[in-house]
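Researcher: Let's continue the batch. This sequence belongs to Nucleotidyltransferase-like protein, and it's 218 residues. Same format as the previous ones, please.
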Amino acid sequence: MPRELLDGSAVSKDLLAIIDWVVDAGAADVIGVTGSFLVGACNARSDIDLVCYGPRGYEAAQALFAERALIQPYEGDAQTRLYIRRAKYMTGSSFDALMRQEARKLQGLTTGAGAHINCEPLRADGDRTLAGVVAQEVGAISVLARVTDHTEGLATPAVYGIAVDTVIGSAARKGVVQAEERLLPSRQRERRVLSGTGRLMNMAAVGPHQHALVRPAR
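Model: Same format as before. Here are the C-alpha cells for Nucleotidyltransferase-like protein:
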C-alpha cells in the first residue's frame, strides 16, 4: 500500500513495522492490507485488517501473529475487551465459549498502539475446492448444528458439513432442514455444537455432503 496513505499515528507506525516484517519474510505476495488503511480512511483509532492467501499465506500469517515484538495476544483484561467487541454478534454465547472460538482466529493487539489487528484467510487464486460445485441456495438460516466436516472451513469462503440440531430462525424452503440429518452419513455425525448463521446450500461434489452451511467473509 502507498505509505503516503498513512497518517503518522501510533497505529500507522505499527502497520509500517508489520509491512516491513512481511516483506522481509518474503510474504508480500500472500499477505495484504485491507480495510480503512487500504482506502486511505484510517485514523488514530483504526483497526488493522489483513488478508492472507492460501496455505503459504496462512503459515506466514501464523508466524507474524506469533511475533511478540509486533503483536500481543488477547490475554487478561484484554480478553474482556474482545468479549465486549464480539458478544453483540454472538448472542447466547458464554464468555468461555466465545473466547475458545476467538482463540482460533488470527488476531491480537499491536505492541505499540494497542490497536486491534486481525487477518482473514482467503482462498488462493488457484484453489479448485469449489470448482465444479453445483449449488442451489435455499435460504438464510440460523442454526445450532454439529460440525461433521471442517476440512474446508479455514479459508473464506468456508464450507462446513453440518448436521442441524435446532433451527433458530429460517427462511429456508420447508423440509430442507429436516432432510439434512438424513442426507449426511451417520458415521459423519459428531462432535461439536455450534451457533452459526450463513446460507444453507443444496450442494453436490463437496466431499460426501449433499448439504452444507456456507459462510462468507467475517
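Researcher: Any comment?
Model: The first strand starts at residue 31 and ends at 34.
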